[in-house]
């Protein structure tokens, strides 16, 4: 019984997954499999789990995080590149236990001598962090309530999806690891089109997503093809009643074929048939008007959540300077 800061190898994964499954606030990004992806793909990422155990050894609360020591600057994320994370509490936990949990969390993170810490609050449960010097910033995502589509065939008749089908676009599951390179080439082409200096994720991360999640029930990786050539792809994670859109890219010269509409239409129809309630469309930056319009055209509803962060003064200054460089 008590608090422990555990490495991934020391975590009882079965107990952790049972704890997550029984909590109404857990997401796919709290799962140990997500932590494994970053540990396997980046040498400077270390997964850690702050857990609070009950008298019988069961996990009653937990905070999964990734410690980054890139450039010898220690930073903590919950969880990186996943939009959602943060503290998870069991329903029966007492108020005084919650207060102690956040105090211990702050103590453990300060021991790491961090330059920054970031905690995502998707449900609105992390307000305790403000008393430890964390500042909250509002961010947004879009949620699509699939139950509204059961008696409304709008997703089947959306013009773009119909056009894609007429133009020979086919949607199917990714069938082999060999095709991941073709998907990654679409990522490189997309990022070059957006004038990015480098892509956010390496090829190895995509391969690890397939290798770690493909054998389970957590992954739905779809591709859009024309005459067997991959022109777009979409990666979705699956957990409880929610489909989480994570990543996708398409070939610029094939955008007139509307492959993204075909992929989203297919995901919606599949999700309804499988009994999922929500499709989480991912983060919605305020300056990405086109992306927001696309999500809302499918019926996505804007949801606000918070990111709490605490940073050393000199590190905040360094971040500001980098924006102008």
What's the layout of helices and strands?
Blueprint: E1 2-7, H1 13-22, H2 32-41, E2 45-53, E3 59-68, E4 75-78, E5 88-89, H3 95-111, E6 116-121, E7 135-145, H4 154-157, H5 159-166, E8 170-173, H6 180-193, H7 203-213, E9 219-226, E10 229-239, E11 242-250, H8 259-274, E12 278-283, H9 289-297, E13 301-311, H10 313-323
Parallel strand pairs: 4-6, 11-12
Antiparallel strand pairs: 1-2, 2-3, 3-4, 3-5, 6-13, 7-12, 7-13, 8-9, 9-10, 10-11
For the termini, the CA-CA separation is: 50 Å
Identify the overall geometry.
globular
- The percent range for helix content is 25-40%
Number of beta-strand segments: 13
Q: Class of the largest domain, according to the CATH hierarchy?
A: Alpha Beta
Output the helix-strand order.
EHHEEEEHEEHHEHHEEEHEHEH
Total domain count: 2
CATH topology of the largest domain: Aminopeptidase
CATH architecture of the largest domain: 3-Layer(aba) Sandwich
Runs in which pLDDT lies below 50 for 5 or more consecutive residues are: none
CATH superfamily of the largest domain: Gcn5-related N-acetyltransferase (GNAT)
Helical element count? 10
């Amino acid at each position: 019984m008590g608090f422990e800061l555990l490495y991934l190898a020391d975590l009882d994964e079965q107990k952790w997954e049972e704890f997550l499954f029984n909590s109404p606030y857990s997401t796919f990004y709290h799962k140990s499999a997500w932590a494994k992806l970053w540990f396997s793909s980046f040498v400077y990422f270390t997964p850690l789990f702050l857990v609070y155990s009950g008298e019988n050894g069961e996990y009653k609360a937990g905070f999964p995080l990734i410690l980054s020591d890139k450039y010898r600057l220690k930073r903590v994320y919950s969880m990186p590149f996943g939009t959602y994370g943060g503290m998870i509490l069991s329903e029966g936990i007492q108020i005084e236990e919650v207060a102690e949990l956040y105090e211990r969390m702050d103590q453990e993170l300060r021991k790491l001598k961090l330059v920054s810490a970031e905690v995502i609050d998707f449900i609105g449960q992390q307000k305790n962090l403000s008393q430890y010097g964390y500042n909250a910033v509002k961010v947004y995502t879009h949620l699509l309530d699939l139950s509204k589509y059961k008696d409304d065939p709008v997703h089947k008749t959306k013009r773009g999806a119909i056009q894609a089908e007429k133009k020979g676009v086919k949607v199917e599951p990714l069938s082999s690891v060999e095709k991941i390179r073709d998907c990654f080439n679409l990522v490189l082409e997309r990022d070059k089109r957006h004038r990015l200096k480098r892509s956010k994720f390496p090829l190895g991360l995509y391969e690890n997503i397939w290798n770690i999640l493909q054998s389970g029930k957590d992954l739905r990786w779809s591709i859009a093809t024309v005459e067997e050539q991959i022109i777009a792809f979409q990666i979705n994670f699956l957990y409880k009643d929610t489909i989480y859109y994570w990543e996708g890219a398409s070939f610029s010269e094939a955008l007139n074929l509307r492959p993204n509409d075909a992929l989203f239409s297919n995901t919606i129809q599949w999700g309804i048939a499988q009994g999922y309630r929500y499709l989480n469309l991912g983060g919605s930056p305020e300056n990405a008007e086109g992306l927001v319009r696309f999500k809302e055209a499918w019926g996505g509803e804007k949801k606000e959540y918070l990111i709490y962060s605490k940073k050393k003064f000199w590190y905040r200054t360094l971040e500001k300077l980098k924006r102008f460089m």
